[in-house]
Design goal:
The protein has one domain. It is about 40% helix and about 15% strand. The protein contains 5 helices and 6 strands. Helix 2 packs across helix 3.
């Protein structure tokens, strides 16, 4: 049975990539996926979720040191930057909502994707690898670029995500899940 929805056009409603509409209050801070009436599962990411949800601590630290942001509100590389890259690459597969004026929800930004959380995790890792390759290519160090490319031939994104998720025990009551 379908659940009643907030009518479209409401500032407290979010139209999902599949076309369904939900109230922003239906998304809580612990939510990582949304079981939609369309029959699909959509990944849910909020600005309060740490980037370590997708990437190991050491890599997040490297990205924070290496990437200069232009935002006064978000001067440090964080989850909104990761989801911005995903949104740029897959504009039809990601919707975002600015809830910064809605004190009832507990988050300022939310992104809901066409992908489930596992596939989104893979997409984030793939895009970060591309970002890293791009950065190495600008280093004017052919040896470093060759070494990076050799390492990436061996790198299996799906296997990495599988191991990372198992290590993090994403099924547990983990705030980083």
């Amino acid at each position: 049975m379908s659940k009643p929805r907030v009518p479209g056009g409401d500032e407290n409603a979010l139209e999902l990539p599949c076309g369904e509409t939900i109230g922003v209050g239906e998304l809580d801070l612990g939510m990582r996926e949304y079981e939609c009436d369309c029959g699909e599962t959509h990944a849910v990411v909020m600005d309060v979720h740490p980037p370590e949800r997708f990437l190991p601590d050491f890599l997040v630290e490297v990205l924070r040191e290496a990437i200069e942001t232009t935002s006064e509100e978000m001067p440090e590389f964080d989850t909104p930057h990761l989801l911005g890259v995903v949104l740029e690459e897959f504009p039809e597969a990601v919707v975002s909502h600015d809830a910064s004026e809605n004190a009832d929800v507990g988050y300022a930004m939310v992104w809901v994707t066409e992908f489930d959380s596992r596939r989104l995790h893979e997409v984030v890792v793939e895009l970060v690898v591309e970002l890293m390759e791009h950065a190495v290519s600008h280093a004017d160090d052919d040896e470093a670029l060759s070494a990076f490319e050799r390492e990436m031939v061996e790198f299996d994104v799906s296997e990495f995500v599988e191991q990372y998720r198992a290590e993090r025990d994403l099924e547990a009551e983990d705030p980083y899940a």
